[in-house]
Amino acid sequence: MKEKRKQKVLFLCTGNSARSQMAEALLRHKAGDSYDVFSAGTHPEGVDERTVEALTKFGIATQDLTSKSIATFEDQVFDFVITLCDKANSECRSYPNAGKQLAWDFADPKERSGSNPFSVTLSELNNRLSMFLLVEEKQKNTKDEGIEELTDNNPQPDDFDPISFYKSLTDDIRLKTLMLAHYHGELCVCELMEAMDEDSQPKVSRNLAVLKKAKVIIDRKHGKWVFYKINPEIPLWAKSVIAQTTENNIALINEELQRLAQMQNRPNKANFCD
Is-catalytic flag, 13? Predict the structure, then answer.
């Protein structure tokens, strides 16, 4: 039986020090029996040691990673050429001898803020490559061991609708409810009313009902109180949307957080263990 030809993939970035190295190592790890994978840079800088550390932490081989110039692959034919930053895309917008050219854009982990930027970038690339394999209909033919620490351990429920999720974010009260719940964990209607300086309980309750119908939040009753929190069963990508929105727009709820901090007679959740 004739052996199936591996498809060739070239990842391009500016320095070939982080993103393209991660993508090369990841795709080789996930689907090396179906793809020959390479990476290069328009202005190679050498492999960043933090790239190696992030990959090693998740059990991905790094011994073959070297920083290379795009000129190394001159005249070679690739089934896929994938740029990972806007600069590389603008410099190599039409790569010669590319079957398909895809333009992805990921933040440079050397410049992004927050904790563990290289691990975050690795996780983002892992998710995108999983989608790539699925779209290209290769995953069914690939023995993908995956990366346990990077995979979504909270798979999307069959009845979780992304359209309903995004629609639920389009109201000021609903969005701020999710942001406050992300920060505090659990809040009751009276706390939300106080935080948002809202006099109408029915108005707040109607918006909570929309979030609940979309399965974005869940509630629990304790005595006379009903508490709301972000549904722990929603998929990781939806949790990430809420988290990123909150953490990067904290000024949007500064006043709400201050009013909540000054609220008197708040329900004591210390005794609520459910």
Answer: yes
SS3 state of residue 82: strand
* Other CB atoms within 10 Å distance of the CB of residue 31: 24
Q: Which two tokens stand for residue 32?
A: 């090396």
CB half-sphere exposure, 230, CA atoms < 13 A = 26
pTM of the model: 0.60
Summarize pLDDT for 28-76 with one digit per residue, the tens. Answer: 999 999 999 999 999 999 999 999 999 999 899 999 899 999 999 988 9
Single-letter code of the amino acid located at 102:
L
CA angle 266, 272, 274 (to 5 degrees): 140
SS3 264: coil
Cα–Cα dist 42/265, whole Å: 61
Reduce the DSSP state of residue 221 to 3 states and report it.
Answer: strand
Report d(CA 140, CA 273) in Å as an integer: 44
Q: What's the DSSP call for residue 6?
A: P
Q: Select from 11, 36, 177, 14 the least CA-distant residue to 108.
A: 14
**Residue 120 carries which side chain, given as an amino acid letter?**
V
Tokens of 116: 């563990």
Report the helix count and the strand count for the chain, using DSSP H and E: 10, 7
Active site residue 188: no
